[in-house]
Amino acid sequence: MPSFSREEVRALYDQPLLPLLDEARRVHLSHHPDNEVQLCTLLSVKTGGCPEDCSYCPQSSHYDTGTNAERMLDVDHVLASARRAKELGSTRFCMGAAWREVKDGPAFDRVVEMVKGVKDLGLEACVTLGMLDEKQAKKLADAGLDAYNHNLDTSREHYRSIIKTRTFDDRLRTLENVRKAGITVCSGGIIGMGETADDRCEMLRTLANLEPQPESVPINALVPVEGTPLALQKPVDPLDLVRMIAVARILMPKSRVRLSAGRSSLSREAQMLCMLAGANSIFYGDKLLTTPNPDEDDDLALIRDAGLQAMPPRASAEAE
Ligand code: SAM
Ligand code: DTB
Ligand code: SF4
């Protein structure tokens, strides 16, 4: 398995954009010759009121953002959304909860039921529920869960200026628990939070040096939300997002790299460059967890105009 050094990753990141894109494209085509983009639908099954203080997050109870704590959705409601997502062409359904960690009990049991239901529909199932221990991961694996999303978000160094209520090592421990249970790992991060180029490279290096590498790597551009400490951050330069995706693609050739939050403020051209750089998945549907996402029709047109195609449903919705 590769063990990338700081300098190696930084050298990749510092390349002029066109040669970087050439290399990323070459790596992409040799590992993903199918020209497919996976469409994934997100649903917040438990919104707001989260005890963590993640500076970017509208769902943290530390900030006044207008996102209020809501009750957990019931299983039928979630499965109706999953059915709709499938009809619209999604092949992966991701459920998020604004929890610091999973606690055993009725709420977790309900998530387990949601996972079983989503699997019964023939969709890939992914959840993001905060920290979790080995036993809880095993329970999700037994329910058929394909993937667990838990982002490193940024570099170890920058992490402490973004989140005070947990550590980077807590994050890594949860990823280990997920891996041990046999669930595939979805982990990535956010750019636009005041990080340096070194922070970006270090985040990608930590992900790429995991063994095995994460099967799925979401790259988010910060969606600045009023009331959060990061509300006034300077908007991300779209070409920085392209660069991040290209470096992720080169470091993690087999992973699905997901162009995640932040697309609503990107032009079609910028999104297409992200796909050229190796992004082969988007969140599909007009809402992420709490913030807007482009309309389905616009996304389908973008994929068509790029000469790509939406990934068809697989006979068995096995995670890649
Ligand atoms: N509570 C769980 C956790 O933190 O792992 C799961 C939900 S949390 C909303 C999932 C991820 O969404 C975060 O790790 C972060 O990367 C991303 N996210 C949250 N707010 C965001 C924002 N305003 N802009 C971009 N990404 C965001
Ligand atoms: C990820 O990396 N991005 C998604 C998903 N994983 C769970 C979440 C984006 C959230 C954006 C802010 C919101 O809509 O609340
Ligand atoms: Fe809570 Fe997750 Fe938001 Fe952090 S990112 S405040 S853990 S919902």
List keywords for this structure.
320 residues, 10-stranded parallel sheet, 10 strands, 39% helix, binds S-adenosylmethionine, binds iron/sulfur cluster
Secondary structure layout:
Blueprint: H1 6-13, H2 17-31, E1 36-46, H3 75-88, E2 92-97, H4 106-120, E3 124-128, H5 134-142, E4 147-149, H6 156-162, H7 168-180, E5 184-186, E6 189-191, H8 197-208, E7 216-221, H9 238-251, E8 256-259, H10 268-276, E9 279-283, H11 296-305, E10 309-310
Parallel strand pairs: 1-2, 1-9, 1-10, 2-3, 3-4, 4-5, 6-7, 7-8, 8-9
Helix pairs in contact: 1-8, 2-9, 3-4, 5-7, 8-9, 9-10
Bound molecules: S-adenosylmethionine, 6-(5-methyl-2-OXO-imidazolidin-4-yl)-hexanoic acid and iron/sulfur cluster.
Overall average pLDDT:
96
Low-confidence stretches: 315-320
The end-to-end span amounts to: 18 Å
Please state the structural category.
Answer: alpha/beta
What does this structure look like?
It is a single chain. The protein is of the alpha/beta class and 320 residues long. The protein contains 11 helices and 10 strands. It has helices at 6-13, 17-31, 75-88, 106-120, 134-142, 156-162, 168-180, 197-208, 238-251, 268-276, 296-305, and strands at residues 36-46, 92-97, 124-128, 147-149, 184-186, 189-191, 216-221, 256-259, 279-283, 309-310. Strands 1, 2, 3, 4, 5, 6, 7, 8, 9 and 10 form a 10-stranded parallel beta sheet that branches. The longest helix has 15 residues, at 17-31. The chain is globular, with a radius of gyration of 18 Å. The structure holds S-adenosylmethionine, 6-(5-methyl-2-OXO-imidazolidin-4-yl)-hexanoic acid and iron/sulfur cluster. S-adenosylmethionine (SAM) binds next to loops.
